[in-house]
Design brief:
Structural class: mainly alpha
Shape: elongated
Number of domains: 1
Helix content: 55-70%
Distance between the termini: 19 Å
Largest sheet: 2 strands, antiparallel
Strand order of the largest sheet: 1-2
Number of strands: 4
Number of helices: 5
Order of helices and strands: HEEHHEEHH
Oligomer: single chain
Strand content: 5-15%
Amino acid sequence: MVDTLLNELLQQVELGERADSSFKKEAWTACIVAIKDIQSRPVSLEQCKSKVDLLKEQWKNFNWLRGHSGFGWDEEKGLVTAPSKVWDEICKVFTPISLLG
């Protein structure tokens, strides 16, 4: 579902259905239709927007971790890495749930 949502939003950008920093209603409608085509359970406009908001927050947190001193990237595993001391310091400031969005 997420792949379909993001692919449809990309198509909507190419079609000019994005105004300023948000998508037009027509773009969201196209996403709902595209998702309906691949799964039997319908989704709402609010669900689509909520999923995109969650993904944006996770992307922001991911980039913050990657750019933060002490963190690295394990290409093979596809994971952000850091020594235990660095994770311990981050966990003192942020709860693990807040880092996930």
